[in-house]
Amino acid sequence: MFRRSKASQVFMVALGIILAAIVLLPVLYIFIGAFTFNASGVVSRPTLGNFTAAASSMPLVRQVGNSIIVTVCQTVGQIVTAILAAYAIVFCNFKRPQLWMMIFLLSLMIPGETTILSNYLNVTNWGLIDTIPAIFLPYLVQGFTVFLFRQAFRSFPSELRDACAIDGAGHFRFMFHILLPITKSTIIAATINSAVSAWNGYFWPLLVTNSPETRTIQVGITQLSGAESSHMGVVLAGSAIAIIPTLILTLTFNKSLRGMTVAGGLK
Amino acid sequence: MTHTDHNQKEGAGTLSTNQQASADPPARDNRASKKNRSSAATRNRAIGALMLVPGLGLLTIFSFIPLVSVIIMSMQGTDLFGSPSGFIGLENYVTVFTDPSFYSVLVRTVVYAVAVVFGRLVIGILLAIFLTRQFGGNKIFRTLMTSTVSVSVAAASLGFLAIFSPTGIMNEALGKFGLKPIGWLTDPRWAFPTITMVTIWTGLGFTLILLCAAIEAVDPEIIEAARLDGANEARIQWSMVLPLISPTLFYIAVTACIETLQAFAQINIMTKGGPGQATTTITYNIYTAAFGAGSANFGIASALGIVLFVFVFILTLIQFKFMDKKVSY
């Protein structure tokens, strides 16, 4: 590493600002448009008018609530099922642990757009169409999350595990007091990964919900453009509401995001 | 998965069929402890089996059984209400494969995937090289650019809808240069490239996360040695860094391909597959066949779904080759 001159430092920062502006253009456009676009699509003085218009034409608050419920249930489901399965595969003396891992990885080979057809008919038959549980029910387990935890657990020395067993620590004590605290970074990375994809879901929630009251925010904002007295500024205000939570999450835990690449065995 | 699970080797001490234990003199307490050990292992396996139940059960109900049902549905006809009826063999596949419009959808899907892969790699590499330079504030730029990973495709599509709208910033920029406005999403020639651009963007955040990590993992001494030998910066990046991070490039290519095959939100929100069929890909075709206005045909949609499954299955197999491989330089 060599010291950079002041001129090249200024040049790099200027280039960075230009590149960041281009890469972030859609995000910037959403926020600028949300605060400044008036009915004729021209920039005016910043107001919150578009947000109130969006909230009045759609039950946006309710939809954000729905999205929170879906995100919490789906994330908790994916993390819990993954920790249990990965623990079983790594620590429970199975004769063929890889075989069980393969079954979970097989699920990654099945595109959701294919199984959606059968799941849709099932959910309809169970009378769950247009309910919140229908949105997260098929996604309570995620093969990739099992894989992430299995990779993390495997790096735990099994002599230590045996030592804990001799000391009389049962499975759950070992899990909660020793294993999970050590694999905290994986838990954070996997949680962010699951939460972001749950919050951002679109295709399935669009199919299984009909009424505005059961829609998630992602589907809700796409219905805004058809709403009465709605214009681009209102649509962008809705979009801003839809991306703020996940943006805050990834800006806060930006370091953990990089853990995902390492956890996946990609060095 | 080609690795051997080290737990199997290390955990062998707790298995009942233990060579070493049988080589010991047959003392009574030794046999007792052996029995204890093997019963402990059996108990462990039983507990493990219980722990697998939730995950495997849910996967079976919502992934494996549905796949089998879709295969069955693809060989069934469709009644007036769009529900599956009667076995008709491969008729749906014949219908799909003899439909000339299916080939344009297939070709379009492949072109779309290749263009997105290429775009993400080229733009991603250039940005990642910039973001891994050492200068004051580079961390901030990296955080900003990689945070786009969390922007939902639905919201991004609405943002792009505004950007590419007739009065949006793109046409305004064209006007500044004295050019005619373009119907980015309404002109059949432009809609497809526009959707491709949007799809390149939606995966850019994740691409940058992977690429920055890969470039930083390159041994700085190799680069330093090349620099001392008088290699210029472009040469170092092109003939040293890129080959060294090629496994990551390949992984990005495969995952981008899978993701593009499954792209739905941007197409549904921005163009509805139109104008005409200009932006209809295989996934969007599944949607229109099953849930399109007045054409609910689950049989045809299932056949298309199986075609998509074959694509994704093959690509995921390739992806697994790279997922578990520690790359050594």
UniProtKB/TrEMBL annotation, chain A:
It is found in: Cell membrane. The keyword Transport applies. It is a multi-pass membrane protein. InterPro entries: MetI-like, MetI-like_sf. The chain crosses the membrane at residues 12-37, 68-92, 99-120, 132-153, 174-196, 232-253. The keyword Transport applies. Residues 64-253 form the ABC transmembrane type-1 domain. It comes from the Bacteria. Keywords: Cell membrane, Membrane, Transmembrane, Transmembrane helix, Transport. Belongs to the binding-protein-dependent transport system permease family. This is Glycerol-3-phosphate ABC transporter permease.
